[in-house]
Sequence to fold (223 residues):
Amino acid sequence: DTAVSQTPKYLVTQMGNDKSIKCEQNLGHDTMYWYKQDSKKFLKIMFSYNNKELIINETVPNRFSPKSPDKAHLNLHINSLELGDSAVYFCASSQRDEQYFGPGTRLTVT
Amino acid sequence: AQTVTQSQPEMSVQEAETVTLSCTYDTSESDYYLFWYKQPPSRQMILVIRQEAYKQQNATENRFSVNFQKAAKSFSLKISDSQLGDAAMYFCAYRWGAQKLVFGQGTRLTINP
Fold:
């Protein structure tokens, strides 16, 4: 049973396209997150939602828009993709202390 | 702003030996959490161990233990009896308040057979 799942796991697209990454958790957690891991493996928070409400929005370009249709889902939509958006994007969820991570989505922009 | 620093980009150890990964952090808070995550080549982020700042006792999980020095803001990870499966990137992370994790730069651990 997958706790936090992401689709797709790999995404290759061209500059200027719009793409979405989906995340679902079946843990019943209230809080979900998006993290970005760059080519140097550095991980940084992008967004956090608690019960469908945005609570953390780090300095992220407006081209990135999270959407939480319900507590179990947090999707990431990216407009006008740029080369610098190439990275691994991780979804995570938590109830209290520990965060559970999805398998990551490797996005490659060509 | 809270920051986490891992000063060792790479470490290597012989199989069955012990290795210690270093982590320091900067915060003005007194109540927070610290974590070590492991990221193998599969890229899955796996929680190795956690420490609550209000607990003086160092956390231990089987072969993994931490040396938490609150005054020095130091949180090192010790891996005993290293195994080939321990080879991975290890990330130190800090959490306070709004629950976002702040990560260090990572340490790549190689296990030599």
